[in-house]
Amino acid sequence: MKYKDKKVFMLLRSIILFITLCLACSYTHLSCQFSENTGASSGLNYKKTSPNNLKLKNPIKKIYLKRENNKCFFCVDFIDDISFTPRIHMLSNGAKILLSFSEAVIAPQTKSINHSLIKGYFFEKFGDASLMLVLALKENVVFTEKVYTQNTIKIGFMISKKRVIAIDAGHGGKDPGTRCFNGDFEKNITLVMAIELRECLLKSGKYRVMLTRDNDSFLSIDERKTKIDSAKTDLLISLHTDSNNDKNIRGISIYTLPNLDYLTKLSKKYIDNADNYYRILAKSRKFANILAGYIPNMCKISNRPCRNIELKILKVDLPAILLELGCVSNKIDNSLLHSKDFRDKANRAILYALNDFFEKEENK
Description:
By secondary structure, the protein is α/β, with parallel strands linked by helices.
C-alpha cells in the first residue's frame, strides 16, 4: 500500500472509531436516564424521592368564631392524628400563631370569615413542618386569654367599645366670640382646636368623634344640643377661650354645672329626676378633675382650674365640661393658642384624661 493510501485508510478508521464511541456514549446516557426514571439500574430497585411525591397533610380541620357570654373566641381545630406546638403572639389588632408540627404539612387555603370584626386570616409556610397563621381584625380589641389543647387553639377577646366624644367648637359665623390680642377671633381658635382634637382622638383608635361644627357656621345652643343628643355621645367637651380686662390674667379653666340649688333656670326635668342630675354632675366633675391633673404637666394653667357655673351648653344628659383654653387677652396665652405645639400638648392632655376617666368608669 502506498503511503498516500495508507494515510487515507488511517483517517477513515479514526472517523469510524469516533462515530462508534459517540454512539456508545449516547446509548449509555439513555440507559442511565431510563433506569433512573423506572427505578431499574444495576439490579437495584431505586426510586428518586421528591417533595411532590410526598403525601402532605392539611393539619387544619376547621377555623371559626365562637361567642360565650360577652367574649369572642377565634378557634382553630386540628385533625386528630397530628401533634403541634404553638407560639401565640397577641397584636393590638390581631394575633400571630407559629405552629410546629410533628410531620410535613401543607398550607391550607385562606377562607374569608363573614364577620363585622374579623378582617381575615392567612397561612404562611416555613419549612416542611411549620406554618404561621396570621389573624387580622378590623379594629383593636382586648385579648382576654389564649388556651390550647391537643386538638384546638382558642384565643379569647372582647370588643372594645369605642366611646363617642362630642366636641363643640364655641361660637362661629355671625358670633365671633372674644377678640384676641393679635386681632384674631375666638371662633377661629376653637374651630382649629376642635378639628385637631378630633384627629388626635381618632388616631388613638379608642374613640368616635362628632363635631357640632366643622366650619365657620353659626349654630344656636339648642341646635348644638340636638346634634349632641342624636349622636348618642358619651361625653361633651365644649371649647372656648377666655378674656379679661386685666391683661396679666392667663391660664386654662374647666367649667361644670353647679348643684341644683344654684341653678337659676331649674327645669321640671331636673326637679323630677334630681338623682340623675347629680349622677351625671359627679361624672362631669370627675373628668374635670382628672383633666386638671394632666394639664399642669402639659400646659400653663390657672390657680383654680375647676369651677362651677350655669351654662346652657352643659345642660345635656351626659357628662359635660366647658374648657376655656386660655385668655386671649393675654399676650402669652394668645401666642400659645396660635402655636401648633401648644395645641398638640393640650390635645394629648385631653386624650390622656379621657383614657383615665373611662378606664376608671369601666373598673367601678
